[in-house]
Amino acid sequence: MRMPPVVFLGPSAPASDILSILPDAIIRPPARRGELYACRILKHEVFLILDGAFANVLSISPREVVDVVQDGAVVVGASSMGALRAADCAPAGVHGAGMIFRLFKDRIISTEDEVAVLFREDRAFPALTEPLINMRIALRRATRIGLVGKAEAEEVISAAQLLHFSLRTWPAAYRKAGRHLSGELLDFFKAIDTKRTDAVQAANKVLKLLEVDRGPPRASRSPQLFGLLGDGRGRAPDALSGADRQQIEAEFIEWLCCSGRGYPRLDNEIDWLSGELTVPTASVWNILNGSGELEAELMRFNVFCRAVAEARRCGLRSENEDVRQAERQLADAHRVGSWNELLIRKGSGSSFSERLSAHCSELALTKCLRRTSLFAGAPSTKPREVLLWHPQ
Q: How are beta strands 6-8 and 276-277 bridged, if at all?
């Protein structure tokens, strides 16, 4: 007898939406690290990840998702953390569903901040704040039908990005942008809930997968408990995700220095005036690996490089606002008040200043890729990236 599907659900949708499609599903709170392993050990075979814990709680890792899929289980991700992990792990056979998954997969968005919200644990839906991705999509649709001008939409999104996710609401974003939000427009925005729409789409995908696979239960292929060695110690993750360390090492270290991602863990290992290492490269890897941050930083680095490559492939050129956003982000990352102050501190005309400027240009390209994809339709040869933003 097959075990019922397990659904990790929080503020993305009400449980009734999922149970109306998968009446036998076991609804669990947002996924935490280790819970997917635990459910697979209990012989569950099908998992739908919509929401996941993060911030002060260890989030479910890509390694855990891949392990469970390689063990023979079916994993579908959508809406929130599930969409991000499905995009991360799609090459390993994880299924994704919905618009947010496609945006993560196509590198239009890349961070947890896009889907993060504040919610009550005793009543997760609806969330108390607005996910940034819902705001992007709602404003995109409002501009298409003439309710909001393009300039206003971009100003509101820029303001929303500056708000912490726990404070991000439509009224707060409009106030920060210095714009007026009418009740009619607020009602229009509130009616667009892409995370909920994606959750329903993902539940239907699970239903179809269950209807297709009516064979005997999927036996576990792993002779051991997931990720555990015979002595019970946790298996170290593959931080390089299959890449050759020697091929990416120099570029990765340069990215850590220029992006400011090395703060504060590498304060003593990097000379922040010259942007040069004060220790062997291996020491940097060991520090990040020991703190459990190496895999995450490599993933961020990979997303950045792929976004830059995609922007160049599309022939994009960053505009002044893209450059300003990139300069502001780098100034904040390096803990100074402005871009000009950053260049002065590093020495105007110095080698590090030139490297920072080059990195800023690449970062501006990623801002341009996101902006054009969300508000103007990127000049891509892939039709899905254009059709993605058609109103449903």
A: unpaired
Q: Tell me which residue has tokens 């792993």.
A: 222
CATH of the domain at 59: 3.40.50
Instruction: Write out residues in the chain with pLDDT < 70, as ranges.
Output: 1, 55-56, 213-245, 264-265, 267, 290-293, 296, 373-392
Q: What is the pLDDT of residues 61-71, one digit of tens each?
A: 888 898 899 88
Nearest Cα to 82, choosing from 71, 64, 222?
64
Cα–Cα distance measured from residue 313 to residue 49, given in angstroms and rounded to the nearest whole number = 32
Within 8 A by CB and 6+ apart from 290, the residues are: none
Q: Are 37 and 68 in contact (CB under 8 A)?
A: yes
Task: Express as a percent the part of the chain with pLDDT over 70.
Answer: 83
CA distance 272 to 288: 18
Q: Which residues contact residue 43 at a Cβ distance below 8 angstroms, ignoring those fewer than 6 apart?
A: 3, 217, 220
Phi, psi torsion values for 215, nearest 5 degrees: -75, -170
Q: Check: CB of residue 98 under 8 Å from CB of residue 109.
A: no
CB atoms within 10 A of CB 313: 12
Pair 144, 37 in one domain: no
Distance CA 21, CA 325 (A): 43
Count the neighbouring beta carbons within 10 Å of the beta carbon of residue 35: 20
Written as six digits, the tokens of 94 are 């994880």
In a domain, 384, yes or no: no
Q: What is the DSSP-derived secondary structure letter of residue 109?
A: -
With respect to residue 314, please indicate whether it lies within any of the assigned structural domains: yes
Residue 56 φ/ψ, nearest 5 degrees: -85, 0
Length of the chain as a residue count: 392
* Helical packing angle, 183-190 and 170-177, nearest 10°: 130
Q: Do both 249 and 353 map to the same domain?
A: yes
